[in-house]
Amino acid sequence: MSMKETLQQLRESSLGAITAAENIDALEALRVKYLGKKGELTTILKQMGALSAEDRPIVGQLANEVRETLTYNIEQRRKTLSEKLLEMRLSSETLDITMPGKPVEIGKKHPLNTVLDEAKDIFISMGFTIAEGPEVELSIYNFDKLNTQEGHPARDRQDTFYFTDDDSLLLRTQTSPVQVRVMETQPLPIRIISPGRVYRKDEVDATHSPMFHQIEGLVVDRGITMGDLKGTLNTLVRQLYGENTVTRFRPHHFPFTEPSCEVDVQCFECGGRGCRVCKGEGWIELLGAGMVHPKVLEGCGIDSSVYSGFAFGIGLERMAMRRFNISDLRLIYENDVRFLSQF
Ligand code: PHE
């Protein structure tokens, strides 16, 4: 085959391939194949030296024509392909701004957290800070240092989740051990609350759960009296339940406070006459409290002839049940969205 024929054949076969190229990459591969440094046209041109002086200009001209044709066609095909690509993009990326949006379901705060956050705000506004303590606690902190010696009924294995045979490690039954941990480590005066989980071996029913929450409170300073305790707790209750809420401080016993009391709020439902909500009592028990026992203060290295303090422990679930009129404790833990979305 003469060089002329070879060139003509190259022109025909390449034009077909260029028109058939499906995308820019394929087209670029064709450009390299025909016009590249090691391409087919270049290879043919390298053989020009073998031609006669007569044929050389004719074949040279033809070769130039072929190159121009190929270059032109490749460029045209490139334009067509990129226009197509743009069209595809434009149609696939169109955004219908008139389409209604997908509704986003926003969760709600759990009623326990609502009440906890309210209580925290109230105490922080009175100058309290928030302390934390471990849920897996030493019996020494949960009991001994709280003036609850071995043999005390509160330490019974029937009521407490112990980890060890010697009963030295347990799931705390109250947040009160945080009192001791704070008194042992923080400088006086002390003004803290400590919310958290506590555990007792209770069967689950409408008012019991083996895990529940308390908020512990502790104030220690010079000259703290029962009057400070009453003022603080009345402020809490009135802010939570309204200015006219009536409270009752009833004598009680806790090993780590002396004197001790329980605080009730008058039933909102019946105003104290007795109804279904307060189980005929007229009052709803809210928390335990008292003046920190001198033995507990001394055990933490605090001079009880100079310093005094008060402490309290509030049941968070009870607060939430009162606040939202929830009649069954189990609802609080089931996390049924139909229940939770009401608050
Ligand atoms: N820890 C007690 C309880 O769980 C409550 C309490 C706390 C009482 C602080 C007095 C002082 O019942």
Description:
This protein has 343 residues and is α+β, with helices and mostly antiparallel strands. It has 2 domains: 3-92; 111-340, BirA Bifunctional Protein, domain 2 (2-Layer Sandwich), CATH 3.30.930. Helices cover 42% and strands 20% of the residues. It has 12 helices and 9 strands. It has helices spanning 3-20, 24-35, 40-46, 55-92, 111-125, 139-142, 177-185, 226-241, 294-299, 316-324, 329-334, 337-340, and strands spanning 129-130, 136-138, 169-171, 190-199, 211-222, 247-254, 257-266, 283-292, 307-315. Strands 1-4-5-9-8-7-6 form a 7-stranded mixed beta sheet, with helices on both faces. It has a two-stranded antiparallel sheet with strand order 2-3. Strand 6 and strand 7 form a beta hairpin. The chain starts with a helix and ends with a helix. Bound molecules: phenylalanine (PHE). Phenylalanine (PHE) binds next to strand 8 and strand 9.
Percent helix, as a range, is 40-55%
Bound molecule kinds, no repeats: phenylalanine
Tell me about the largest β-sheet.
7 strands, mixed
Residue windows where pLDDT falls under 50 for at least 5 positions:
none
- Main-sheet strand order equals 1-4-5-9-8-7-6
Q: How many helices does DSSP assign?
A: 12
Number of domains: 2
Top CATH class of the largest domain = Alpha Beta
Q: Sum up the overall morphology in one term.
A: elongated
What distance lies between the first and last C-alpha atoms, to the nearest angstrom?
91 Å
Average of the residue pLDDT scores: 93
- CATH H level of the largest domain: which superfamily? Bira Bifunctional Protein, Domain 2
Task: Round the Cα radius of gyration to an integer and report it.
Answer: 43 Å
CATH architecture of the largest domain: 2-Layer Sandwich
Total beta strand runs: 9
Q: Please provide the ordered H/E string of secondary-structure elements.
A: HHHHHEEHEHEEHEEEHEHHH
Strand content: 15-25%
CATH fold field value of the largest domain: BirA Bifunctional Protein, domain 2
**Class per helix and strand makeup:** alpha+beta
